[in-house]
Write a structure and sequence with these properties.
about 130 residues, alpha+beta, two-stranded antiparallel ribbon, 5 strands, elongated
């Protein structure tokens, strides 16, 4: 059984996989204190947490150098979305990251524009 170097990915083993269970990472919590969607964008503020939160929090904070979605972070750290949201909410609570709800692309002046809807429908029909 070969163990990876500590600088690679924290607490992973080639044969066993992740050595710490997800509920341990989130301290058993399943509800984040901040509201997140999978498409919510998060980014580091540059402020450091007032205390050390743990290796998983540090890993997440490093991934937040630029705007990144919650879903992308969950994939990068190989954790369920709910665990990722708990970690991110801890970082929001201590001011280390900021979040922004996903924006909507404007549809024009009238979101029920018949020509636009017909063009979308026509395009879908051509693909199917």
């Amino acid at each position: 059984m070969r163990r990876r170097q500590p600088s690679e990915v924290p607490l992973l083993d080639d044969d066993a996989g992740r050595l710490i269970r997800p509920y341990t990472v989130s301290n058993g919590r399943t509800k984040p204190s901040a509201q997140f969607d999978l498409l919510t964008m998060v980014m580091a503020t540059g402020d450091r947490p007032y205390s050390y939160l743990g290796p998983d929090h540090s890993h997440v904070l490093k991934l937040c150098g630029g705007p990144v979605s919650v879903a992308e972070i969950a994939a990068q750290i190989a954790q369920p979305a709910v665990v990722t949201k708990v970690l991110l909410s801890d970082l929001v609570d201590c001011g280390a990251i900021t979040s922004r709800a996903p924006g909507r692309a404007p549809l024009g002046n009238d979101p029920t524009d018949r020509q636009l809807l017909e063009a979308v429908l026509d395009g879908l029909r051509r693909r199917l």
